[in-house]
Amino acid sequence: MKKSFALTAGSLAAAVLVWHAAPSFAETARRVPAPTADLVAPPAAKTETAVFAGGCFWGVQGVFQRVKGVSNAVSGYAGGEAKTARYDEVGSGRTGHAESVRITYDPQQISYGKLLQIYFSVAHDPTELNRQGPDTGTQYRSTVFAENTEQARIANAYIAQLNQAKTFGKPLATTVETAKPFYAAEDYHQDYLTLHPNQPYIAINDLPKIDDLKKLFPESYKATPSLVKAARAG
Description:
- By secondary structure, the chain is of the alpha+beta class.
- The protein is built from 8 helices and 8 strands, in the order H-E-H-E-H-E-H-E-E-E-H-E-E-H-H-H.
- About 40% of the residues are buried.
C-alpha cells in the first residue's frame, strides 16, 4: 500500500532502479470522445466545483492541478460520514468514503464536460471496479460525486455514451453519487505529487498521467500547477 513508503535515500534510489526494470501499474491513457451533452455556464459564473474519485488521490489531484481553468484541486474523501473522513479509517475500505478530489474551476475557461473527458481519459482507468493499479478496495472506486442534478445528468449521459460506443471495449465501472459531502484530507496529502516526484509510488503510477495529459490534451495543459498550499498562502 502507498502509505508504507517510508524510504531512506539509499532505498529510494534502489526502488527507482527497480522501477525502471519492472512493469508499471500505470493505467493506459487514451483521449476519449468529448461528451455530446455539457453544462452551459451562465455568463456571470466565475467559479464552479466538481468532485471526482479515481483511485489514489495523489495522482488525480496532480492531473487536475495542471489543467487550464482549474484554480484549485484538493485531495479528500467523499461518500461517507464526517467522523470517518480520516486517512487511517478510509484505508479500511469500510467507511463508504472514496479518495476524491474537489476541483474548483472557471466555467468560462473550461467546462464540466471537458473535466469529465480528462477524468476518463488520463486521470484513471474507469473500467476497474474498486481498484486502480496496485490499490484495491472501495476507497479506490471510480465515482463522480455530482454536486447537483445537472452534474449528475451530464455524468450519467457521458457514461452511457462511452458504454454505447464501446470506447473501452468493456463497460465502465464508474458510478455517480449525489448528496455526498466532500471532506478535505490531511495537510500531508495535499500537493503530494509535486512535493514528492521521486517517491516510487508517484514515479511509477502518477507521473505518467501528467505526461499523458500534456500529450493528449495540449490545449488544456499548464506547466505550473495550481497548488493547495499556494492558494492558502494567497
